[in-house]
Write a structure and sequence with these properties.
Layout (H helix, E strand, L loop, with lengths): L8 H15 L11 H28 L5 H26 L16 H16 L4 H10 L3 H24 L5 H23 L8 H19 L11
Length: 232
């Protein structure tokens, strides 16, 4: 039998209260969101301990020598259940290390820079890329598809591909300029979208914004050569 199973219920209660005390953050660490959880846990533990004491008293009043073993077993099991109830709550309340991160940043390597900007370049030059697809839809006057594709493009191209590339920039000033370039791409897509709406279809405006889109993507690609890789 494990040693703590033979511990009197009063001692077990003291252990429970001690564990609760160490789970509460120190005064230098502010975590107000844990307060309600701690209070509820304490109330649950106190209720369980009180119920155990009441049951123990009732058993003592009606017990016989032959039932002593069963009573001790019941007390031990009840106290053990209380400890098991507290354990996950105590663990969840412990503060995480200050330097813990949900996801580690990838190291900037030349291979990562090249592959990231190659994905952007393909949207400009590939027959199945963003620019060619829009040009084909405009030529076919497929306005419904243009409306949908421009919305999707802002998410996967501007937020996705351009966003990943901006994080690789090592010049802080250029990071600010890159945001402006990304926003310009959004304005180009919005211009194409507006010129494709019902009653406002305008092929000339569509193509004008498409040319602006090409120029803005080309400007963004120039940022690749400014990235400094430490290990080189």
């Amino acid at each position: 039998m494990m040693p703590f199973l033979r511990t009197p219920s009063s001692t077990l209660l003291s252990i429970i209260l001690f564990l609760t005390a160490i789970a509460v953050p120190s005064s230098g660490f502010h975590a107000p969101r844990h307060t309600a959880t701690i209070d509820r846990s304490y109330e649950t533990i106190s209720a369980t301990a009180t119920a155990t004491r009441h049951t123990t008293t009732a058993l003592s009043a009606t017990s016989t020598p032959s039932s002593s073993s069963s009573r001790r077993t019941f007390i031990t099991q009840s106290s053990l259940r209380t400890l098991l109830l507290l354990a996950p709550t105590t663990t969840s309340l412990l503060p995480l290390p200050a330097n813990a991160k949900a996801k580690e940043d990838l190291p900037i390597t030349r291979q990562l820079v090249t592959s990231t900007f190659s994905e952007i370049r393909s949207e400009l030059t590939s027959p199945t890329g963003l620019v060619s697809t829009l040009a084909d839809l405009i030529s076919a006057r497929n306005y419904d598809e243009i409306l949908q594709y421009t919305k999707e493009s802002d998410a996967y191209f501007r937020k996705g591909k351009l966003g990943r590339a901006r994080k690789l920039l090592t010049d802080k000033d250029l990071k600010g300029e890159a945001i402006g370039m990304s926003n310009a791409v959004t304005f180009d897509l919005i211009g194409i979208n507006r010129a494709s709406r019902p009653g406002k279809e305008n092929a000339e405006e569509q193509n004008r914004y498409l040319e602006e889109l090409k120029k803005d993507v080309e400007r963004f690609l120039e940022l690749e050569k400014t990235i400094v890789v430490v290990d080189e």
